[in-house]
Every structure is written in C-alpha cells, then in structure tokens.
Design a protein that fits this description.
- The chain is mainly alpha-helical.
- The protein has one domain.
- Helices cover about 60% and strands about 0% of the residues.
- The protein is built from three helices and no strands.
- The longest helix has 25 residues.
- It is elongated and about 55 Å long.
- InterPro entries: NqrM.
- Pfam families: NqrM.
C-alpha cells in the first residue's frame, strides 16, 4: 500500500513538472478564462481594453513588440493583463 502511495505522489510530481516545463517553453503569459471569477463578480470588462477583444489583442501585440525591442520576454511588468 505504501508503495502505491509513493508511486502516485511521484507520478503527480512528474506530471506537474512536465506541465510547468511546457508553460515555460511555450513562452506565453498565463491567461484567465472568459467566464472566470472576474465575469461572475461584475468585472466582465477588461480594465485596459474595456471588453473589446480587438483592442485587447492589439494591446498584447504592442506589448510583445515593445518587449522584443527591449530584449525582454513575456508581458511588461507595469502592464499586467
């Protein structure tokens, strides 16, 4: 029984590490869902784009371009989305 528990814990740890490595290698910021807790609490609109998906995508492209010019990766620390 103890062997089964240890194997399960090791398996979960390996899967967790594999997912973390996948997120790191994808080099994309982690996003929330459209119907997440923000939408439930009345905050369906984005603070940056006002709920306009086109403007949101444009803002993200602009931030990515700026990061590329500055040699950084990921979102700008001052503009979290």
């Amino acid at each position: 029984m103890l062997i089964t528990i240890i194997v399960a814990i090791v398996l979960f740890a390996l899967l967790f590490a594999a997912m973390a490595i996948g997120v790191i290698l994808a080099n994309k910021p982690v996003r929330g869902s459209c119907g997440g807790i923000g939408a439930r609490g009345g905050r369906a609109d984005c603070e940056i784009c006002g709920g306009d998906p086109e403007r949101c995508d444009e803002e993200q492209r602009s931030n990515a371009d700026q990061a590329d010019r500055e040699g950084r990766t990921g979102p700008s620390p001052s503009r979290r989305h």
